[in-house]
Amino acid sequence: MKDAKKDSEKVVWDQIHMRSASGNPLVPGPSTRPVPKFMLWLILFVSVTYVIYTLKLLTTSAQQSCEDTPFTSSLRRSLLNPNRTSLASSPLILNQTAETTSRHHRYRDGREKQLAVVPMQRAPAKPKQTEIHDVVFGIAGSSKLWEQRKEYIKIWYKPKQMRAVVWLDDRVKYSPEDKKTLPPVRVSSDTSNFAYTNLQGHRSAIRISRIVTEMSRMKMDNVRWFVMGDDDTVFVTDNLVRILRKYDHTQYYYIGSLSESHIQNIFFSYGMAYGGGGFAISYPLAKALSKMQDRCIQRYPGLYGSDDRMQACMAEVGVPLTKELGFHQYDVYGNLFGLLAAHPVTPLVSLHHLDLVEPIFPNATGVEALQRLMLPVKLDSAGIMQQSICYDKTKRWTISVSWGFAVQVFRGIFSPREMEMPSRTFLNWYRRADYTAYAFNTRPVSRNPCQKPFVFYMSRVGMDSEHNQTVSEYERHRLPHPPCRWKMADPDKLGMVIVNKKPDPHLWSRSPRRNCCRVMESKEPGTMVVDVGLCKDGEVSEV
Predict the structure, then answer these.
(1) 142: closest CA among 198, 235, 192, 204?
(2) Alpha-carbon distance 475 to 491, whole Å?
(3) What are phi and psi of 86, to 5 degrees?
(4) Residue 135 and which of 197, 249, 343, 441 are 20 to 30 A apart at CA?
(5) Which among 247, 407, 235, 435 is positioned nearest to 326, based on CA atoms?
(6) Measured in Å, how far apart are the chain's first and last C-alpha atoms?
């Protein structure tokens, strides 16, 4: 086979040599004009160059963007109307053969069809943040205490911005003035058909536990959250919204906090939100609860209150408590100073049992004290009650600032670990219980006369628009101090502390951290000036 192939190639080659340039056969005999080698090399070079250029063109045309390719117009037409095909396209190389051109067009048409079927995806729209008008408050009240307790609601409720319903056990007088300053009042549905067998409680607990269900059946529009509270609960609503923004309102959420009393939590549950401190339920969870709560309540006739009935039904739905420490039940008696002056690093959301404790500011009624607290809340709600700890190194003093509430000045150096523990100025809910009956760490009130704090309560607050900062004044609470023999500077000469702080609405958008404070130079005798704000790089509370 190989010999025959060689013979045929030789015959063809000989025939080529025996023809002239015009195609006529030459006279037999030896070749008189051999073909130059230069022409053979030239033909070979042009052929190889043509093949390489063609392959390179086909490869790069598929990778170029729509703006750079010669097929831009046809590609756009096919994307807009995939049923139409490109009518024509200018040839890239005039000397291309018909076979190469058709193969290139088939490749291009197939590529365009693939692109045409790919859906044009848009970035999902960012959901709107939760605002106060997305929240509906359910306030549990008593007709017997309405005239007294409604004053607490007036402190925080804003009729033009908020939605709320007060649920009572009976009708009450509702004056024209009340309509301007209070939520609408409704009488709860009859619950006499529900069994209640707890001998120590009151069956109004059933009525109160059904408030969320009754509100969810009112068919209100654009509701994301239902928030429960008592008629003696005071909310810091800006901070409530900051907490709720952390969670997806389309999911099942049950948000609240525990009691300050360890015994209370043992009796009821460490997984239960206490209703006086307030708790939030997402709208989908409220709808699911409304479908089964009446059956659920019938299964727990022996429970004490509304809070534990709500938690029992949450357990049946399978939703645990999401704990937020800013909801305060305040199951204590006495003076809340120790708790408020060392508030945890979290937004202050609510205060409760304000009828059972002393007013938070001295020489004022409970309502007047809360009205004073709302003055700094209006200027910087995120920073209200937040503790800062710093030192006057020259005088060896420890300063603790609870912004918007009080400043304490101590002789000597106390570590931040000690200062962030609440001092026991209050009594346990169970009067015979000792300090081990709290659900958090506390420290005793010092018996050493030299270590008793000098306390300054917030008296005035305003905005310095020139420097874009709040200026709050804290006046000395004059109480007799026993003599101290320590040889050091005496804070007794101080009469006022001025605290400068820039408002920080994004405080809780960052990771939790206490603000830092710095003792500044004061030109006025008897006055201390403190600057409070974000900690600088490397700044810590140390001497």
Answers:
(1) 204
(2) 13
(3) -65, 135
(4) 343
(5) 235
(6) 102
- Total-model pTM: 0.78
Burial 494-508 (b: 16+ CB within 10 A, else e): bebbbbbbeebeebb
Q: 102 phi and psi, to 5 degrees?
A: -65, -40
Give tens-digit pLDDT for 76-122.
444 444 444 333 344 333 344 444 445 544 545 555 445 445 555 67
What type of residue is 425? T
Non-local (6+) Cβ contacts of 479 within 8 A are 455
Is residue 296 within 8 A of residue 313, CB to CB? The reply is yes
Under 8 Å between Cβ of 185 and 153: no
Residue for token digits 């995120």?
382
DSSP for 493-543 reads G--EEEEEE---TTGGGS---PPEEEEEP-SSTTEEEEEEEPPPTT--S--
Q: What are phi and psi of 273, to 5 degrees?
A: -85, 130
CA separation, residue 331 to residues 65, 113, 208, 274 (Å): 69, 71, 19, 10
